[in-house]
From TrEMBL:
This is Molybdate ABC transporter substrate-binding protein. Residues 1-20 form the signal peptide. The keyword Signal applies. The gene is modA. Pfam families: SBP_bac_11 (PF13531). It comes from the Bacteria. It comes from Luteolibacter luteus. GO terms for molecular function: metal ion binding; molybdate ion binding; tungstate binding. GO terms for biological process: molybdate ion transport. PANTHER family: MOLYBDATE-BINDING PERIPLASMIC PROTEIN, SULFATE-BINDING PROTEIN.
């Protein structure tokens, strides 16, 4: 009898394991803490695992183009998402989040930044690669609009993603960095010297989409919907992101 009960529980466990699905979520580096926390909440609620992969949005898009097994893509900008959408690699992207550009300096820095023009007083400024990394693209658009991009060229240190720009300041390799508000919030080694006012920089939008090549499309869609749930929204807001209503 005991053996029969044990076998029944074993069969039940194997059945549940067989039903569980695992998806891979490619998300912009700036989303690392939020998506990790949300993925844990998702698994607790559904029993299914969402494994996050973080990098610059441009790097993730290239991986998707090369056929990487990605089920959900969350980009830090619409341009990168539009690129993979035009290639029919994602389905019907929706706007998910917003963010803000800030200038950060070391915690003990006495540097004063009260406008874009004050960046001229700094020696080295870390930014995401302005040719590809969304944070760098946003920074370039902001400074170009302010008429300062060319003037500040020699001061910039290009980084592979926004977190690398933040790390440059933390390590003392740059006097400042242009990052997202949410990046500044995770570091105890930097402080926000200035927040770029709304209207001076282009809107920062994070879209999300299910990848066309996903072998777990239904589960990927379920996770995408979970990202807009009350539980996920609470996590995003606690990390400093704004919610983008469709």
């Amino acid at each position: 009898m005991k053996r029969t009960i044990f076998q029944s529980f074993l069969a039940l466990g194997l059945g549940l394991a067989a039903q569980a699905e695992e998806i891979r979520v490619a998300a912009a580096a700036s989303l690392a803490e939020a998506i990790t926390e949300i993925s844990t909440a998702y698994q607790q609620e559904t029993g299914n695992k969402a494994t996050p992969v973080f990098a610059g949005s441009n790097v993730l898009a290239r991986q998707i183009e090369e056929g990487a097994p990605i089920d959900v893509f969350v980009s830090a900008d619409e341009a990168t998402m539009e690129k993979v959408e035009k290639a029919k690699l994602v389905k019907e992207p929706v706007k998910l989040l917003t963010n803000t550009l800030v200038v950060v300096v070391p915690e003990d820095s006495e540097a004063k930044v009260g406008s874009a023009a004050d960046l001229a007083n700094l020696k080295k400024i870390a930014i995401g690669d302005p040719a590809a990394v969304p944070a760098g693209v946003y920074a370039k658009a902001w400074l170009t609009k302010a008429g300062l991009w060319e003037k500040l060229q020699e001061k910039f240190i290009g980084s592979e993603n926004v977190r690398a720009a933040l790390a440059a300041v933390e390590a003392g390799n740059a006097d400042a960095a242009i990052v997202y508000k949410t990046d500044a919030a995770i570091s105890k080694k930097v402080k926000v010297a200035w927040s770029v006012p709304e209207g001076e920089a282009p809107p920062i939008i994070y879209p999300v989409a299910v990848c066309s090549g996903s072998k777990h499309a239904a589960e990927a869609e379920r996770f995408t919907k979970f990202l807009k749930s009350e539980k996920a929204s609470t996590i995003f807001k606690s990390r400093g992101f704004g919610l983008k209503a469709e």
